[in-house]
Amino acid sequence: MLVHSVLSSYIAGFGYENGTLRVVLKGKTGLKAYDYFNVTQEDAGIFAQGLGKSLNYIKGKYDCKPVTDKIYFSE
Questions:
Q1: Which of 9, 12, 54, 67 has its CA 20 to 30 A from that of 30?
Q2: Chain-centroid distance, C-alpha 18
Q3: Burial of 36 by CB count in 10 Å (0-12 exposed, 13-18 middle, 19+ buried)?
Q4: pTM for the full model?
Q5: What is the distance between the alpha carbons of residues 50 and 13, in angstroms, rounded to a whole number?
Q6: Best CA proximity match to 11, nearest among 28, 23, 29
Q7: How far apart (Å, rounded) are the C-alpha atoms in residues 28 and 2?
Q8: pLDDT digits (tens, 9 = 90+) for 12-52
Q9: Is 32 helix (H, G, I), strand (E, B) or coil?
């Protein structure tokens, strides 16, 4: 899944494909990514517009797991 870079203090990027929202977070030890499953397109749009403010909304509504594969950022 391609991840779009964003300018945020703690979100490095995000991507949405086939109901999966991938969020890449910046941390003290580097980047960590999480996949949220069965996310509606509407909620993905809400996340994209609000980013950090809506991350708690996504966290509280959808199941997630850490990403272990490589992350590819768009240019």
A1: 54
A2: 14
A3: buried
A4: 0.83
A5: 13
A6: 23
A7: 23
A8: 889 999 999 999 998 888 889 999 999 999 999 988 888 66
A9: strand
